[in-house]
Amino acid sequence: KNQWAYEEPSESMLFILLLFQLASILPLSLFCPSECVCVSDGLASVSADIFQGLVNLTELNLSKNQIAKLDANVFQGMTSLNDLNLSGNLLRKLPQTLFHNLVQLKSLILYSNQLETLENEIPPQLFWHLPSLLTLTLSNNQLQYLPAEKQLMGHMPRLQELYLYNTNLNTVPWNLFANMTGLRALNFHYNEKLSSLPRDLFCCQTNLQKLSLKYNNLQHLHPDQFSQLVSLKILLLNDNVLQSLSSRIFHNLPNLAKLELSHNHLSYLPGDVFEGADSLQSVTLGHNRWDCVCNIMDFVEWIKKNQRVKKNMFHFESFPRIKSIFLIKAFIVFCCIHIFLWGFKIS
């Protein structure tokens, strides 16, 4: 038989050719199942109609691409979408109506993009139309400014987790979290320029159970900073530059179980600073700048009376042998006597 003779194509071959032809002219939506992860490594752009007709799609992952811009209507028909991951792209601006039809969205991840200021790149009220959202991640962007006049977040009572870390923020508006009344975990850490917090920043988070403010640059906290966090169980304040704390700062935290204050610039704590924190189980205070002065005695008495609390207490670099509560107290008494005699001698 002549190897170059013409042969009729088989039915399977015709079907494959037909699929290739259709794929070149029809939108992606007709080939995607109702539940899928649509991810394409290296994708640089997304056309406005690429997801047209995907009304049953529940999960869309466009992470780790090179998308720099999104059309305002690209997600318009995706009314069943639950999870949207846009992390690891090159997004600098987001259209104001980008998420307006995603009424079923539960998780929105915008981690690691190139968003810089929320005044220009992220318009006010961007997240106002996401009533079902449970998790929002804005971390690892170079955010510098958040507008106070028009709230970024609308009424989001179901939001449970917010991630806003590794930014260039040095402060935030007092009403940033005001509409997040159902928030359970707030990860607001690793913001090296964040030096202060508005007094009423946590005014409405009565359901918050975990608050992480570690590795910021906080120098001062208002005495009533946490007064509304009656459900709080975990408070992470370690690795800041706090120099002092008000005696009432933890007084309205009856459920607080874990507190981290290590690696700050604390030299003294009031003796009644933990009054009312009856659920406290763990406190870390190491690597601070404790002063050998008599007014620290009240706090040492609290340590003595609360042996149930697991403590990583004082870290005396110059006095490594001082470890037990008794030796700490004896050491401070010795210092107080020394200070008293030295003062008497001078006078």
UniProtKB/TrEMBL annotation:
SMART domains in the cross-refs: LRR_TYP (SM00369)
Record's GO cellular component terms: plasma membrane
Transmembrane segments: 325-344
Pfam families to which the protein is assigned, alphabetical: LRR_8
Keywords: Leucine-rich repeat, Membrane, Repeat, Signal, Transmembrane, Transmembrane helix
Signal sequence, renumbered to the chain: 1-31
Coiled-coil blocks: none
UniProt protein name: Uncharacterized protein
InterPro entries according to UniProt: Leu-rich_rpt, Leu-rich_rpt_typical-subtyp, LRR_dom_sf, LRR_TM_domain-containing
